[in-house]
Amino acid sequence: MAKVLMKGNEAMALAAIKAGCDAFYGYPITPQNELPEYLSKHMNAHGRVFVQSESEVAAINMVYGAAGAGARVMTSSSSPGIALKQEGISYMAGAELPAVIVNVMRGGPGLGGIQPSQADYKQITRGGGNGDYYLYSLAPESLQEAVDLIKESFDIADYFRNPVMIAVDGLIGQMMEPVDFDLPVPKWDLKPKTWAADGNRSNRGKNIINSLFLDPQVLENHNIKLDKKYQEMKDHHQRYEMINMENAEIVIVAFGSTSRIARTAIELLKEQGVNCGILRPITIYPYPAKAFDELPKTVKDILVVEMSMGQMLDDVKIVNQGRYPLHFYGRVGGMVPEAEEIANKVLEIVRGEK
Amino acid sequence: MANVKTIYKRSEGLAEVPTSYCPGCTHGIIHKLVAETLVDLDLLDRTVGISSVGCSALNYDFFACDMQQAPHGRAPAVATGLKRVRPDSIVFTYQGDGDLASIGIAEAIHAAHRGENITIVFVNNAIYGMTGGQMSPTTLLGQKTTTSTDGRTASQGLPLKISEMFATIPGATYIERVSVHNPQHVNKAKKALKKAFDIQNKKQGFTMIEFISTCPVNWGMTPRGAIDWAVDNMIPYYPLGVYKDKTAGDK
User: Fold this and answer.
1) pLDDT (mean) for B68-83
2) Which of A208, A212, A218 should we substitute to test contact with B (largest number of B Cβ atoms within 10 Å)?
3) Which of A21, A22, A200, B131 would bridge with A71, disulfide CB 3.0–4.6 Å?
4) Residues A205 and A253 in one domain
């Protein structure tokens, strides 16, 4: 199919329909409103479910209910709204239910702002709610990648029986790009949802969806079982892209829109005779630790660039294990780093200035 | 022995497990009525019950149908999500007054507002039982709890009349308040449940049955004394009856 020009939020909405999303439950918040608006118009036409809930808390619990019945279900929100959804997300992880959650990040803390940000990094990559759990978290840098990952994310959620977070910032949500909706995406090996509590008892006996385990030994066993999934994600499903790594003397680590801007920065640096690579995490959970083992011997420094005060920097410190000197450049509050700023920071480092 | 016949037994709608309820608590009667109603209407196989948080949190083990356990107060939202994707299922929530009238009031009101085709079984015993007897929105004036040790005063809020409030919601179809303090009222309560589940089965919209219930342990009374206290104090403030019936004109 030919490419179509679409706004990010609408493209992600259509990708969900293409992926067979049965139901969407959401609550308005900027800068993601075009996503539920698009679905409110098109889900019913496709015989699917759309409900505008009374709050983010209600929306995520509707997702929990529908996921428990075995449906393919999605919600979307932005940073403070995602914070409100942590209750239901934790329950879904505990009850082992699949769902896709899109977070179009904006500046914080508190009501913060409505401009692009990556300051939900910790909220996304540390589980976010109470208890020991994680979300498989994907951070696309373009609309095409966002569409492809959303199409695949429903399979990933079903495979792990765990929520998947699509982590984008307001830039991805609001910008327009040409997108092809029919590119093939990996198919995961999925089992029938025989566990669903969907009012079909006569065929298989009673099913229970539950995250309550009052016996501490039973709950410990449950946590160990959940952790096996997270270990499988870490061992086999890290995703990342290595860009311009050959003979790179310095590497920028950046994800999402920030890596997109870094791509322009490394072109500016080539004109200055500086060979700069980009290590782009596609999964921010599990963090792509393997990528750091593949850096070429020419690399002397690592620069972490984020739209936050250095939240991913902590993960880089963990996986770097002291191998490379680490530098940081961040813009926050909805301010987006420009390619020249990033290039200048790189030049400072490689020329030993400051 | 040939002439021995069974005249009373556990409902097929209840699993063969002991419940976690205290002696004298009316949850047991209400569970039995819900289970019998689902069996009588032949709905059990396609029912999903939503457990809430509180004394009834564990009832996903007690009912014999599919069950999903919900976060505190969110049962009507969980029920909404589920019912919308499985419109031919029968979905009920089972919630106490702390769960529904306090932390979950928004979810309950908006499920009624949207006219969700679900049934809420609302069990009002005017106290938080599971957490040890704290004041709830339906605790009566003067009633002593662990967070109103001298008795509730007006500054702590006048007790909320939930059925009366829900009757004002345009989207709600059927609202009734019942009690299970004697056999006559137990039979009346079962009729109310039958009406509510029948309405849901006919896809006629949102139904809620409020039960006046007791909590002998946290009220500090005997089971008999608790029943008498409910009759003397709760029912006068929370009058029994049908508060809304949109189907009344359909006859």
Assistant:
1) 98
2) A208
3) A22
4) no
Q: Is the pLDDT of residue B100 over 60?
A: yes
CATH number for position A10 = 3.40.50.970
> Are A272 and A305 contained in the same domain?
yes
User: What does the radius of gyration of chain B's CA atoms come to, in whole angstroms?
Assistant: 17
A160 falls in which pLDDT band (50, 70, 90)? very high
Task: Judge whether residue B251 has pLDDT over 90.
Answer: no
Number of independent structural domains in chain A? 2
Strands (E), A78-198: 99-105, 136-138, 163-169, 176-179
Per residue in A243-253, pLDDT (tens digit) is 999 999 999 99
- Note down the domain range covering A206: 4-236
Residue of chain B with shortest Cα separation from A61: B78
| A98 shares its domain with A204 | yes
Per CB-CB distance under 8 Å, the chain B contacts of A73 are 81, 85
Quote the mean pLDDT of chain B: 97
Residue A152's alpha-carbon distances to A46, A179, A241, A285, in angstroms, are 20, 16, 18, 16
Query: Each residue of A74-105: pLDDT tens digit?
Result: 999 999 999 999 999 999 999 999 999 999 99
Q: Which domains, and CATH codes, for chain B?
A: 27-141+155-245 (3.40.50.970)
* Residues A130-150: tens digit of each pLDDT: 999 999 999 999 999 999 999
Nearest to A208 among B45, B60, B113 (CB): B60
Task: Flag whether pLDDT at A64 surpasses 90.
Answer: yes
Work out the number of other CB atoms within 10 angstroms of the CB of residue B228: 14
The amino acid at A203: N
Supply the pLDDT for residue A217: 98
- Spatial CA neighbour of A65 closest among A44, A84, A91, A43: A91
Domain match, A165 and A211 both: yes
Q: How far is CA A210 from the centre of its chain?
A: 25
- Look-up of token digits 């920030």: A258
B131-183 pLDDT tens trace:
999 999 999 999 999 999 999 999 999 999 999 999 999 999 999 999 999 99
CA distance A21 to chain B (A): 11
Residues of A with CB under 8 A from a CB of B: 22-23, 25, 49, 51, 53-55, 57-59, 61-69, 71, 73, 87-88, 91, 95, 197-202, 206-212, 214
Sorted by sequence, the CB contacts under 8 Å of residue B168 that are 6+ apart come out as none
Are B66 and A201 inside 8 Å of each other by CB?
A: yes
